[in-house]
Specification:
3 domains; 15% strand; Alpha-Beta Plaits; 6 strands; 3-stranded mixed sheet; 64% helix; Alpha-lytic protease prodomain-like; 10 helices
C-alpha cells in the first residue's frame, strides 16, 4: 500500500469513528433536550449532528482526492479536500446561525427545563467523550496532513467546552432554580459561528494560495546551495495541489562558464535530493549565470548597495554583465509597498547615473518566499 492509500485509509477510518460517536451523542442529547425542554441541550445535539455530517463530507473529499491523475487533472485531485473542508465550514456556519435564531426566540419566549439525574450524567459523559474524540481526530489530522480532520478535531474540543457550559447551566438551574438555558444557547451559537468563520477563512487561504511555509523554503534552499557549484538559490515557488502534493520551481545561480552537460547533471541531482528529503517535486530549475572576476564582483557589490538602501527592495540576484552589448541585468525582489514599475524606474535611474555607458535591465520579482 502506498503512502496516499494509507493516508486515505486513516482519514476514512477516523471519520467513521467521528460519525458513529457524534450520531450517538446527538441521539442521547436530543432525547435529554426534548424531555427536559432544554434549548441548550437540543442545540448541543444539533451541533453533534452537524459534526457527523462534516465527517461524511470529509470521507467523500478524501476519496475524491485519492483518485489517480487523469488527462483532465494531470496533477491529481488533491485540492478537492479543500472543497470538502469549505463545505464542512459552511455547514458549521449554518448550524451556528440557526442555533442563534432559536436561542433568541427562547429568550423572548422562555420555558422552564426539567432535568433528571440521568440527563445530567449523560451530558457529563458527553463532555468526556468529546474531549477524547477531539484529541483523537486532531492527532490523526496532523499525522495525515488533513485540514478537514484537524478542523473537525478542533471543533470537537470546542464542543466539549460548550457541553461543559451546558452542564454547568443545568446544575445551576437544578440547585438555584435560575434558568440560563437560552443565554447559554446564544453563547454556544457564537462559538459555532466563530469556528465556522475561521474554518472558511483558512480554507479560502489554501485555495487562493498561501505564502510558502518558511521551514520548507529554508530546507529546500539549504539542500540546493549545499551543492559546491551552486552560488545561490532564488525565486523558490511551491505550488500546492492538496495535502502532501507539492510541486516547486526555483532559480539557481551558477558560474557563467559551466557547460550544459554539467548543468543537466546538477539539476537532476537537485531534483532527486529535494524530493527524497522533503517530498516536494521540483518541476523546474531555472539558471542564472554569474560573471567571474573582481571587476564584476565590485560592480555587483556597488549596485547591490544602491538597490538595498530602499526598504521595499528585499533582495537582488541574477546579476550578470554583458560587456559585449554593454548591458547589466539583474532581478530585484520587491515588497508589496511599492508598484513594481515605479521601483524599476527608480532603480534604473539611480544605477544609470553610476554606469551611464550600460543599458540597465531590471526584472521585478514578487515577494513570495521568506
Amino acid at each position: 500500500m502506498n503512502d496516499n492509500q494509507n493516508r486515505e485509509k486513516i482519514i476514512v477510518r477516523t471519520s467513521v469513528v467521528g460519525i458513529v460517536v457524534n450520531l450517538l451523542l446527538a441521539a442521547f442529547k436530543a432525547a435529554v433536550g426534548i424531555l427536559s425542554d432544554s434549548i441548550a441541550v437540543v442545540l448541543d445535539a444539533v451541533n453533534n449532528l452537524s459534526d457527523a455530517l462534516s465527517s461524511i463530507i470529509t470521507i467523500i473529499g478524501a476519496k475524491v482526492a485519492g483518485k489517480k491523475p487523469d488527462k483532465k487533472h494531470p496533477l491529481g485531485h488533491g485540492r478537492s479536500e479543500y472543497i470538502s473542508a469549505l463545505i464542512v465550514a459552511a455547514i458549521v456556519m449554518y448550524a451556528g446561525i440557526t442555533s442563534l435564531v432559536e436561542s433568541v426566540k427562547k429568550i423572548l419566549d422562555p420555558g422552564q427545563p426539567h432535568y433528571t439525574t440521568a440527563s445530567l450524567v449523560i451530558i457529563g459523559v458527553a463532555v468526556i467523550t468529546k474531549i477524547l474524540l477531539g484529541r483523537y481526530v486532531k492527532a490523526k489530522g496532523e499525522q495525515t496532513g488533513s485540514g478537514a480532520l484537524v478542523a473537525s478535531g478542533t471543533d470537537a474540543l470546542s464542543d466539549a467546552a460548550i457541553s461543559a457550559g451546558v452542564l454547568i447551566t443545568a446544575l445551576i438551574y437544578t440547585v438555584k432554580g435560575i434558568s440560563l438555558e437560552a443565554y447559554m444557547g446564544v453563547i454556544i451559537s457564537g462559538f459555532i459561528i466563530k469556528a465556522g468563520y475561521e474554518m472558511i477563512s483558512d480554507t479560502v487561504s489554501d485555495i487562493l494560495g498561501r505564502r510558502t511555509d518558511i521551514e520548507i523554503s529554508k530546507r529546500i534552499k539549504q539542500i540546493i546551495v549545499a551543492e559546491p557549484s551552486v552560488l545561490g538559490a532564488y525565486d523558490l515557488f511551491v505550488h500546492n495541489y492538496g495535502p502532501e502534493r507539492e510541486y516547486a520551481s526555483v532559480h539557481i545561480e551558477l558560474p557563467a562558464d559551466m557547460t550544459v552537460d554539467k548543468v543537466d547533471v546538477l539539476t537532476r541531482k537537485i531534483n532527486e535530493k529535494v524530493y527524497r528529503e522533503t517530498g516536494v517535486v521540483m518541476t523546474a530549475v531555472g539558471v542564472y549565470s554569474r560573471n567571474a572576476g573582481s571587476k564584476a564582483e565590485d560592480m555587483r557589490t556597488q549596485i547591490e548597495e544602491v538597490v538595498l538602501k530602499h526598504e521595499w527592495a528585499l533582495q537582488m540576484h541574477g546579476f550578470y554583465i554583458d560587456e559585449e552589448k554593454k548591458r547589466i541585468r539583474f532581478d530585484v525582489v520587491m515588497s508589496f509597498d511599492i508598484a513594481h514599475s515605479e521601483g524599476v524606474r527608480i532603480l534604473r535611474d539611480e544605477i544609470s547615473g553610476i554606469y551611464p555607458e550600460y543599458e540597465i535591465i531590471i526584472v521585478a520579482d514578487l515577494d513570495i518566499t521568506d
